[in-house]
Amino acid sequence: MIKNEMKLIFPSNPENERLARISVSAFISELNPSIAEIAEIKTAVSEAVTNCIVHAYREKPGFITLTVKAANGKIHIRITDRGCGIDDVKRAMEPLWTSRPEEERAGLGFAVMESFTDRMTVKSAPGKGTTVTLIKNICC
Amino acid sequence: MSTITEPIIIEAENDRVEVFLSGDIDHKNAASLRNDIDYAIDRHKPKTLTLNFAKVEFMDSSGIGLIMGRYKKLSALGGRLIVSGTSGTIKRVMKIAGIEKLAEIK
Domain A4-137 carries which CATH code? Predict the structure, then answer.
């Protein structure tokens, strides 16, 4: 597999949810993933970026950094914000738990990311932000 | 890409409303879809509301919030929710959410 990488830094505007998933989709298309794999990665990225906008920055201005690396049959995606952070990552990862119930959030972002990738890690500290790393094996 | 087509078409007949969704359903556009569907629910007070996803190209869990919210609103009015036209990744997102417990899947 080709070694390649991409880094995007963009404001936490809802318009950029689509930008992020389309950019990642374009990046990984060179690696010949299946249509299902593209859809899974797009969905996982959209969940992670939406979490930054809705939960980390609470819809206030901030920046999101997205890095994507492809090597050895794997895609590594890292989404970082400098927002409010998560005080209890374990609880945040529980399905249907959300910090924004009034916004009709389903509380399924992490469950979807976990389901659609092969590995997910979440590092966060209150007041310092959150980094979500997603790893997806691409069948060649 | 479906930026030119209408993101939502609502058909109402007697006590039934069917909502044809299209394009992308994410956090950015879920709010306007919610407003449009709720307007139709308030106006027609349907016994059955069908959300048709056949032309939806992308949906993340923002779409699940949209379905759950309409389920609550419709249930309070004694209505029934039907979800149709799902496939692929969208179907899997709905499975993760357990939508089949809230709505009839067609």
Answer: 3.30.565.10
Summarised one tens digit per residue, pLDDT across range B15-46 is 999 999 999 999 999 999 999 999 999 999 99
Q: Do A47 and B30 touch (CB under 8 A)?
A: no
What pLDDT, in 10s, does the model give residues B46-92?
A: 999 999 999 999 999 999 999 999 999 999 999 999 999 999 999 99
Distance from CA of A136 to the nearest CA of B (A): 15
Of the candidates A16, A51, A59, A102, the residue annotated as catalytic is: A51
The architecture CATH gives domain B8-105: 2-Layer Sandwich (3.30)
CA of A4 vs chain B CAs: smallest distance (Å): 26
Confidence of residue A97 (pLDDT cuts 50, 70, 90): confident
ipTM score assigned to the predicted complex:
0.90
Closest partner residue to A43 (CB to CB) among B34, B60, B66 is: B60
For residue A57, which phi and psi values (nearest 5 degrees)? -100, -5
The residues facing B59 across adjacent strands are B25
Q: What count of CB pairs under 8 Å joins A to B?
A: 68
* Short-list A21, A30, A23, A44, CA closest to A1: A30
Q: Mind giving me the DSSP string for A79-100?
A: EEE-SS--S-HHHHTSTT--S-
